[in-house]
Write a structure and sequence with these properties.
By secondary structure, the chain is α/β, with parallel strands linked by helices. The protein has two domains: 198 residues, Rossmann fold; 97 residues, 3-Layer(aba) Sandwich (Rossmann fold). The protein is 38% helix and 14% strand. Strands 1-2-10-7-8-9 form a six-stranded mixed beta sheet, with helices on both faces. Strands 5-4-3-6 form a four-stranded parallel beta sheet, sandwiched between helices. Helix 1 packs across helix 2. The protein is globular, with a radius of gyration of 21 Å. It starts with 15 loop residues before the first strand and ends in a 10-residue tail after the last helix.
């Protein structure tokens, strides 16, 4: 361990962990657990990267308010960074995202402006742009900001290359979210580990990349309208209702080897499987990515090595369907265990 000058020094350097009980025989399956970042998700990297880049360029002035549209994890990461650096933060967020995300951001000192669920991601982005222009706030533009991808090239990608130095990495599996992780890591892997196949997962109900329909964009690369292939899905933060510019850049680079469509129920199932069979506590998006990695593993040649990105912690999802069947009170089986000895029992009901 080391001593750090601030919490920001703990961002990154997340562990790569072997999967044992859930991995098929003959395949080396690993996961990179981004929940080990200080605020629990891969978006801590993005938040630090875009703020430091804006400070360096002079776009962000001392004491200026920062604003971003977020499904939660980017806002939580920005709240941490802004709290440490002394910037006020306002986030816009569609109301359908989990309650605990709002509370976490407010606990960290951010202001959370909700937008109606019907408008989805495009509406919350539109609101953030309006507020930034009206008040002179700094808009981080996570979906188009090259500093997002650059941060992942400098940190996430380098960690992966170093962790597999002297070994092979046959497949790298990820969702796309903002596109920052996908763009930043894939361009480094294609240069330094050219035999690694880039596997991208997306929701079966929102198969934007496999639809073949181009995203309508504004002149700055932002989405001009929702993508027609979008339908609601349970993977919060994994795929908005548009194809982000950074993700579109990767499609144009033609470095993606395969796109896998993941049903919503599989994402919930695999998140719980990771918890109960590997002791790895992660969210719905991680379960979705892992479901994709298992598909790759099932078809990969024996001896293949696979690395899957797990974006965030399961604690972001306590109020979502992921925990819908987890009871708060004792189950009949637990009551039976309690009654198997005579002391400290609740009255029978």
């Amino acid at each position: 361990m080391a001593r750090f000058e601030s919490i920001l020094g703990t961002v990154g350097n997340t562990p790569v962990v072997r999967i044992n009980r859930l991995a098929p025989a003959g395949v080396n399956l690993y996961v990179k657990i981004e929940a080990f970042n200080p605020l629990g998700s891969v978006k801590d990297r993005l938040a630090l990267g875009v703020i430091e880049a804006a400070e360096k360029s002079g776009e962000l002035k001392p004491g200026q308010t920062v604003i971003e549209a977020t499904s939660g994890n980017t806002g939580i990461g920005l709240a941490m960074v802004c709290a440490q650096k002394g910037y006020p933060l306002v986030v816009t967020m569609a109301e359908q995202f989990s309650i605990e995300r709002r509370k976490l951001m407010r606990f960290l000192g951010a202001k959370v402006v909700l937008t109606p669920a019907a408008g989805r991601a495009v509406a919350m982005v539109t609101k953030a742009v309006e507020l930034a222009k009206t008040h002179g706030w700094f808009l981080t533009r996570q979906f188009e900001n090259e500093a997002n991808a650059d941060m992942h090239s400098r940190t996430t990608a380098r960690e992966i290359v170093d962790d597999f130095k002297g070994d092979k990495l046959d497949y790298w599996v990820t969702g796309y979210g903002t596109g920052g992780t996908l763009k930043g890591v894939s361009r480094v892997l294609k240069k330094e580990m050219p035999n690694t196949k880039i596997i991208v997962c997306e929701p079966e109900d929102a198969s934007l990349l496999t639809s073949g329909v181009a995203q309508e964009r504004n002149s700055d690369g932002s989405a001009a309208a929702p993508h027609p292939a979008f339908k609601p899905h349970p993977m919060q933060g994994w795929t908005p209702d548009f194809i982000p510019k950074l993700t579109g850049d990767v499609v144009d680079m033609k470095v993606i080897d395969q796109i896998i469509r993941i049903p919503g129920p599989d994402s919930l199932k695999m998140s719980m499987e990771l918890a109960q069979k590997e002791g790895i506590f992660v969210g719905i998006t991680a379960g979705a990515s892992f479901a994709g990695a298992l598909r790759v593993a099932a078809e990969a040649p024996k001896g293949s090595t696979i690395l899957c990105m797990l974006p965030d912690t399961g604690e972001r999802y306590l109020s979502t369907p992921l925990f819908g069947n987890v009871p708060a009170d004792m189950t009949p089986e637990e009551i039976e265990i309690s009654r198997s000895t005579p002391s400290v029992q609740f009255p029978a009901t």
